[in-house]
Amino acid sequence: MLELIREASEFLRGRIRRTPCEYSAGLSGVLGVPVWLKLESLQLTGSFKIRGALFAISKLRRDVLTCSAGNHGKAVAYAAREVGARAVICVPRSVDRAKLDGMRNLGADVRVSEFDGYDDTQDWALELAAREDLPFLSPFDDDLVMAANGGTLAMEVMEDAPEARAFVLPVGGGGLAAGFAVWAKQRETTIIGCQHELSPALKMSLYAGRAITKLPAVETLAGGVEGGIGARTFAVLRPLIDRVALVSEAEILHATRWMVEQHQYLIEPTAAVTVAACLSGKIGTLGAPAAVMVCGRNVSSETVKKILCAS
């Protein structure tokens, strides 16, 4: 995958933003080592997902069908518009309103499922793809997506924060973490995956010795880390992950508010999973400088109200 990551990086140059690595005095104080935030929340379409969508669709160059909790769908809608293709995007009925509106505003054919969770919605999306004879683009379980979403992020972080040797990553389907770990593990590094405690697919998969690709839907504002892990992403990530941190809904919402108070960045709850793991101490002791992924900002005003009013 290393050559694929290099190819993705070259392709994306000039097509996306080089998002900053910002020093965090607050997290550095909490963890006792220098800590940088990789602010993919400032990326085009509001998340890191534009990396994989642009790279994968540049290869397909045709109409696609995909499934998304929101950010991947918005990125695919953008990428499809760039090449003149049609994007059919299946989303859970619990999708954040800002993400739903974003996909539609970019011209996508958005189909809302009757399910709250990602996994059941993906099963429905796969049936639609077969019925409509469209290629299904996974938001995570795809080498092109892994290379671009995670691998190119790792390249940038390791260039812009060269001291960092510990990397704190969100894990939903696992595409970001898998691609990131492939590149980062060329050095002696520590990879820490962060998940919602009610949907710990990576942790469960490591215990089971096989990918847990489906989990029951859970009620959370962090929809991007809900559901099972990809079979391919787990195969890549399994030998590279060092530990997994599980955080609660309350810790995620606290971390979202903390980012506003300490850094004046409004991020989405999914992106706050990594910050929550740091603030709660659940990532464990770090013996080296660290970089923390902040993966997205797409959040509706209704969700913001829930977060700011939560206690």
Low-confidence stretches: none
Order of helices and strands: HEHEHEHEHEHEHEHEHHEHHEH
Mean of residue pLDDT values: 96
DSSP, total strands: 10
Largest beta sheet: strand ordering: 1-2-10-7-8-9
How many DSSP H or I helices?
Answer: 13
**How much helix, percentage-wise, in residues?**
40-55%
From the spread of the alpha carbons, the general shape counts as globular
Total discrete domains: 2
CATH class of the largest domain: Alpha Beta
Largest beta-sheet details = 6 strands, mixed
Assembly state of the chains shown = single chain
Structural class: alpha/beta
- Quickly give the CATH architecture of the largest domain: 3-Layer(aba) Sandwich
Give the CATH topology of the largest domain: Rossmann fold
The radius of gyration is 18 Å
**N-C termini distance:** 44 Å
